[in-house]
Amino acid sequence: YGKNTIKFLRLHREGKKHFVKEVEVCTHLRLTSAQEYLEGNNSLVIPTDTIKNIVLVLAKKNGIPTLEQFAIDICKHFMTTFCQVVYVKTYVQEVPWQRLHENGVPHIHSFINVPDGIRFCEAEQCRNGPLVVFAGIKDLKLMKTTQSGFEGFFKNEHTTLPERNDRILCGELFCKWSYGECKDFDFDCIWNKIRECILEAFSGPPDCGEYSPSYQKSVNSIQMLILSKVSQVQVIEVVLNNIFYNVLDMKNLGLTNDKEVLIPVEAPYGSCACTLGRK
């Protein structure tokens, strides 16, 4: 049991310069006994309101140096403070505020919400067990307008999809990875590096791109590049929810539409998922 969607903004000041972290936290516990379920005995139950208050107090006392460190702090607090807790799991998700720049100059106290992917992390620990940390990015929308196709697929009497060697590849990406044994990592640096790998593998070189024969191959290319460049990552899961566009037939308007006006297909949509780990 636990407390979900604990939302707050943590403001940190260094002189005139301000820093913000707005997060949503979910924290769940497992206790030594299930007596509250089986017998209605609540003597070991830490109220979910207390869980919420602890999260807020830790944010006040420790700040949020990184999402991962904050999740670790929460796990350690419950494990070291309450003997009846045998398992704790914390999920932390960040609102994507970025410092506002004016004419290339960073503003000291103004920020802009930029929806270019949401950062999240999870930390979980069993009593007498290792602390395990996961991190990720979700709701990251990516598109390339060429250098993508889909050919040579299996066909039968139900197949109506035509083969294409030049199409728009667009999708909403979810990516989650594990660090294995938790060490003194620079979580911010690693997260930014992984995000750069995702963009590089999806798009290819900036002057020419790289051909993608399928959504599945793009997913694998992203995973392979991350595992080759980021040694701290042990296992990585990628889900790419496909966003399709159909070319609008404009013949009845007396126009030829050479893939210049397209209509997004809302539903149904395809999805490709893969989990890849080191040997």
From TrEMBL:
<feature type="binding site">
    <location>
        <position position="49"/>
    </location>
    <ligand>
        <name>urate</name>
    </ligand>
</feature>
<feature type="binding site">
    <location>
        <position position="48"/>
    </location>
    <ligand>
        <name>urate</name>
    </ligand>
</feature>
<dbReference type="GO" id="GO:0006145">
    <property type="term" value="P:purine nucleobase catabolic process"/>
</dbReference>
<feature type="binding site">
    <location>
        <position position="242"/>
    </location>
    <ligand>
        <name>urate</name>
    </ligand>
</feature>
<keyword id="KW-0576">Peroxisome</keyword>
<feature type="binding site">
    <location>
        <position position="49"/>
    </location>
    <ligand>
        <name>5-hydroxyisourate</name>
    </ligand>
</feature>
<dbReference type="GO" id="GO:0004846">
    <property type="term" value="F:urate oxidase activity"/>
</dbReference>
<feature type="binding site">
    <location>
        <position position="242"/>
    </location>
    <ligand>
        <name>5-hydroxyisourate</name>
    </ligand>
</feature>
<dbReference type="GO" id="GO:0005777">
    <property type="term" value="C:peroxisome"/>
</dbReference>
<comment type="pathway">
    <text>Purine metabolism; urate degradation; (S)-allantoin from urate: step 1/3.</text>
</comment>
<dbReference type="Pfam" id="PF01014">
    <property type="entry name" value="Uricase"/>
</dbReference>
<feature type="binding site">
    <location>
        <position position="48"/>
    </location>
    <ligand>
        <name>O2</name>
    </ligand>
</feature>
<feature type="binding site">
    <location>
        <position position="216"/>
    </location>
    <ligand>
        <name>5-hydroxyisourate</name>
    </ligand>
</feature>
<feature type="binding site">
    <location>
        <position position="150"/>
    </location>
    <ligand>
        <name>urate</name>
    </ligand>
</feature>
<keyword id="KW-0659">Purine metabolism</keyword>
<comment type="similarity">
    <text>Belongs to the uricase family.</text>
</comment>
<feature type="binding site">
    <location>
        <position position="167"/>
    </location>
    <ligand>
        <name>urate</name>
    </ligand>
</feature>
<protein>
    <recommendedName>
        <fullName>Uricase</fullName>
        <ecNumber>1.7.3.3</ecNumber>
    </recommendedName>
</protein>
<feature type="binding site">
    <location>
        <position position="48"/>
    </location>
    <ligand>
        <name>5-hydroxyisourate</name>
    </ligand>
</feature>
<feature type="binding site">
    <location>
        <position position="216"/>
    </location>
    <ligand>
        <name>urate</name>
    </ligand>
</feature>
<feature type="binding site">
    <location>
        <position position="167"/>
    </location>
    <ligand>
        <name>5-hydroxyisourate</name>
    </ligand>
</feature>
<keyword id="KW-0560">Oxidoreductase</keyword>
<feature type="binding site">
    <location>
        <position position="242"/>
    </location>
    <ligand>
        <name>O2</name>
    </ligand>
</feature>
<dbReference type="GO" id="GO:0019628">
    <property type="term" value="P:urate catabolic process"/>
</dbReference>
<dbReference type="InterPro" id="IPR002042">
    <property type="entry name" value="Uricase"/>
</dbReference>
<comment type="function">
    <text>Catalyzes the oxidation of uric acid to 5-hydroxyisourate, which is further processed to form (S)-allantoin.</text>
</comment>
<feature type="binding site">
    <location>
        <position position="150"/>
    </location>
    <ligand>
        <name>5-hydroxyisourate</name>
    </ligand>
</feature>
